[in-house]
Amino acid sequence: MRIVHINLERGWRGGERQTLFLMQGLRSLGHDSTLLARHNDGFVDRVREEGFPVIVMSKPFFFHGGSLFGFDIVHAHETRGLQLAALWKPFHQSPLVYTRRVDTPPGRHTIDRLKYTAVDRLVAISGKVAEVMTGWGFDPPRMKVIHSAVPLRQDLGMDSVEKLRQRFPDRTIVGCVASLEKRKDHGTLLDTAAIVQQERGDVLFVLVGDGDLRGELEKKALKLGLHNVVFEGYQDDPYPYYGVFDVFVMTSRVEGLGSSILDAFRYRVPVVATSAGGIPEIVKDGRTGLLARVGDPCAVAGCILRMLDDQGLHKSCTENAYALLEKEFTIETMARSYEALYREVAGSGASRVR
């Protein structure tokens, strides 16, 4: 099959990484993928380096709809791409698949209703996302849950890991890899760090990621008198950090699933996370990690200290998490699920506009 993937985001984050992973997985199954994207060096360059054709377009995106012709499947990975594909569907006539990655409902404007009407299959990356979309009014028979995935193996780059160890000598590292935006709730993470600082002087919180809230968060850290937090900013290659993390923490208020948690699983870093969105579908409390209430820094701090102090729990959680990853969250599993979905819509006449 020939699939065009539309992703018009400006940066390189979880959704873009998942788009590339899917393209790689589909190629291993014998399918051809093309990316339709805006000017986005971090994303487009990576896709081209992997040998995939890329069509780069600029605003107004609507005028580039002719690029959607000649494919067996049109697959939108974010809302701007969905709008483009839906508006042009009467002309390209290909089945339209859309992947929804956030656990918040779309708007209820007429244009939102119309573009979702054009979707032949909506893929929710977690059961929670599917639940939200059902509540919004999307037709469940046209929806399927396909989880995000990560590679099972990837070299951390031991030279880079060693350099990080030299920067943080004799420290126990609690790490987070996430953009500094409201839904990730780093404010609660800083409150957590303040509690932990009172209990253990050896623990350092290393925050990898950047975003609009960085200045505000740095001011809060200063106000709280935190000496145990470092802001590392955006990292083109964040994976070596997993080599120095003793615990991975995620304090999100809104989370479709949490692919950075899956990264912690594959690098065997024990996870503490809040019970937001689809996170409980991967972090099984006491089995693959520890869960805390959303917005509760005392609970998060307690889970972190427990994970650091209980080596038996540390070992069992990382082993169970990796086993779960191998069973349900590989790129091959994700690609085969999408392949089956594509064949279903391509063979059902779903390309006919409703």
**Range of helix content:** 40-55%
Assign the structural class, choosing from mainly alpha, mainly beta, alpha/beta, alpha+beta, or little secondary structure.
alpha/beta
The total count of helices amounts to: 14
User: What would the principal axes of the Cα set say about the shape?
Assistant: elongated
Q: Numbering strands along the chain, what is their spatial order in the largest sheet?
A: 3-2-1-4-5-6-7
Note the main sheet: 7 strands, parallel
> How many domain modules?
2
What is the strand tally?
A: 13
Assigned CATH architecture of the largest domain: 3-Layer(aba) Sandwich
Order of helices and strands: EHEHEEHHEHEHEHEHEHEHEHEEHHH
Could you explain the architecture of this structure?
This protein is of the alpha/beta class and 354 residues long. It has two domains: 2-149 and 330-347, 3-Layer(aba) Sandwich (Rossmann fold), CATH 3.40.50; 158-328, 3-Layer(aba) Sandwich (Rossmann fold), CATH 3.40.50. The protein has 14 helices and 13 strands. The protein has helices at residues 14-28, 41-49, 79-87, 89-92, 110-117, 127-136, 158-167, 186-199, 214-223, 239-242, 259-266, 297-309, 311-328, 331-347; strands spanning 2-7, 32-38, 54-57, 73-76, 96-100, 121-124, 143-145, 172-177, 203-208, 229-233, 247-250, 271-274, 290-292. The strands form two sheets. A seven-stranded parallel sheet has the order 3-2-1-4-5-6-7, with helices on both faces. Strand 9, helix 9 and strand 10 (229-233) form a beta-alpha-beta unit.
